[in-house]
Specification:
- Keywords: Coiled coil.
- The chain is mainly α.
- The chain folds into two domains: about 5-70; about 75-115.
- It has helices spanning about 5-20, 35-40, 45-50, 50-65, 70-120.
- It is rod-shaped, with a radius of gyration of 37 Å.
- The relative contact order is 0.07.
């Protein structure tokens, strides 16, 4: 590793210590990668691509030292909860629609059967001849 890379890593570690101590100087002090990058004076993508180990170490330290769930993880958990609720509602709606389709199919079959019976000519033993009225 070159000196610039080592210097960047050292600044990130120092920024971690400041953020976890609540002594932020160059960021808003939140325990996020964005704040860590701002505090260290490096681009956020440097943390996400070149220094993923430091990013993971930061989140592990946040979890261990502050007993907090990192902000990104909390948002993801909320999203997962909302999505699970949405899936449960959709499954219930799909089941309700399946039952409706079954009932409508049955009703349609009954109506078609009644129509076919109505169109059949009456049996000969049911025919009563009409008589002319007496004159």
């Amino acid at each position: 590793m070159n000196d610039q890379h080592q210097d960047e890593r050292a600044r990130i570690r120092q920024a971690m210590d400041r953020l976890l101590a609540g002594e932020a100087t160059a960021s808003n002090g939140s325990l996020t990668v964005v704040a860590l990058a701002a505090e260290a004076g490096v681009h956020r993508m440097a943390l996400l691509r070149r220094h993923t180990d430091l990013k993971n170490e930061f989140y592990e330290r946040v979890r261990a030292e502050t007993r907090q769930v990192p902000e990104h993880e909390r948002r993801l958990r909320e999203t997962v909860t909302r999505l699970k609720e949405t899936v449960a509602r959709q499954k219930a709606e799909i089941e309700e629609l399946r039952q409706l389709v079954a009932r409508l199919t049955l009703a349609s079959a009954v109506l078609l059967q009644n129509d076919e019976q109505a169109l059949d000519p009456p049996a000969a033993d049911n025919v009563v001849p009409l008589r002319r009225p007496p004159s």
